[in-house]
Design goal:
globular; mainly alpha; about 350 residues
Amino acid sequence: SYVLILVPAADRMLVSVVCFGLFWAAYELAFVASRAVFDGLVNDVVPKQFLGRFYGLFRAVALVDGMVFNFWIMGRVPTHFTLILCVIAVFYGIALTWMCLKVREGRYPPPEETAAGGWGGRAGGGGLLLRFAAEIRTYCRECFSNSYYLLVFIMLMLGTASLAPLNVFQIPYASHLGVSMDLYGRYLSLVFLISLILSFFLGWLCDVFHPLRVAMASLAGYACAMLVGGLYATTPASFLAVWVGHGVLAGCYFTSVASLGLRLFPHARFAQFASAATMFTSLANMTIAPLIGTLIDVTGKFYRLTFFAGLAASVFALVCAAFVHARFMKLGGPKNYAAPE
């Protein structure tokens, strides 16, 4: 905001978009790295039979935060945008640092050295680059050469793509229909309240029936909600009704897939496979929003495209999930599953 003061008014929109894009790209890079590390920590310290309930409770805490923000603060975003972002940044930094200082892991055996001699020891710049290239080849071969894991990555990417259209454009959609930010925030708090009530139950379902099956049920329900929204979300009341269904079912999907990778990927190399999966989902996040935004502009603000796009992606994700489930059952199913190495 301070940079914009020095920019001519005609160029401020361009500068805003460029800054927004650069910082969002930085966020995506940080998200890929931190999410894999955080889930790897959970993979090491939380017993497998409690993973679903752990993530259910983890999401419950996030939902309480979301309810507080959207009920009391969302309506003030237009007038106190910079202050709110600064407070969030400080709070997040303190909470993350506190977690890093307080969480203690167990003792692990040293990692195996690669054929190239590992990363230790002295080497010139050329040798370091060669080893780096060798590690990249190993990473790509291990993560992307197995068709089963590719199916899992694509399923997660399509699942993210199904939620992204409405998630990205829900505020412009609401504004287009005349929904105030205050009313929007209160309905979002309702979504969080319903999701909060369901969170532990969903985690328990994931532990009992497996997160893959719960995710498939969530995608099926989400596809139905998208169909209804695409056909009937033309007034503030109908939009808000379907949008609440979107938010609840999207929350069900996020809660179920939170522990999915920990149940499907190799335990000893979980963070590696989780980072590969996050690259696929980040690709979906980066491409879906510009594509849908362009279509909305070309069609004269036809925001119901967000519902139809979510419907198409959720159906493809569900089909892909069916193939993953078939391979999952051949690998032992819920009771005897062994991740292919």
